[in-house]
Amino acid sequence: MARWALVVQETVGMGQDRTWGSKVLAEVEGTREEAVEELKRLVPSYTPQHPFNSRRRTLLRDGDTYLLISQGSMRDYHCVFKVWELLWDSKRPEVQAERLAEGPGTGPDERR
User: Fold this and answer.
1) Residue 51, preceding bond cis, omega within 30 degrees?
2) Where does residue 16 rank: exposed (0-12), middle (13-18), buried (19+ CB within 10 A)?
3) 8 CB contacts (<8 Å, ≥6 apart)?
4) Residue 98's pLDDT is what?
5) Cα–Cα distance between 69 and 59 in angstroms, integer?
6) Residue in 29, 22, 30, 31 with CA at minimum distance from that of residue 82
7) What is the Cα–Cα distance from 59 to 78, expressed in whole angstroms?
8) 26-29 contacts: CB < 8 A, separation 24 or more?
9) Based on the number of CB atoms within 10 Å of its own CB, is 81 exposed (0-12), middle (13-18) or buried (19 or more)?
10) Nearest one of 16, 81, 79, 75 to 48, comparing CA atoms
């Protein structure tokens, strides 16, 4: 069974140390559709790191990708939410073992 990472990409850090970072919010074992449903449930309640006090939040969707725009007092920030298939993790060898056990013909394109 496939593993899916529910990922947010957003601005992290303060001042000159601000960067664009990615964070796994959750993992789902199952179908891509199940992972997309879980992402759909998580996104509306997500609180981004910036801005500290949001004056307005706008949530947009393009297929299975979400864009959250937060207006702050000085500037706007945005977050992008996506579902990614987890293929490999250097600290979790069981992920690779699961992928190898699936064998050929069971990749995401072949399962659909």
Assistant:
1) yes
2) exposed
3) 22, 23, 25, 46, 48, 79, 80, 81
4) 72
5) 6
6) 22
7) 10
8) 27/3, 27/86, 28/3, 28/4, 29/1, 29/2, 29/3, 29/4
9) buried
10) 79
Mean pLDDT of 50-76: 90
3-state secondary structure of 25: strand
pLDDT tens across 43-55, in order?
999 989 888 788 8
Beta-bridge partner residues of 62: 65
Tokens of 88: 């490999």
* Burial track 36-73 (b if 16+ CB lie within 10 A, e otherwise): bebbeeebeebebbbbeebeeeeeeeeeeebebebeee
CB 66 within 8 A of CB 44: no
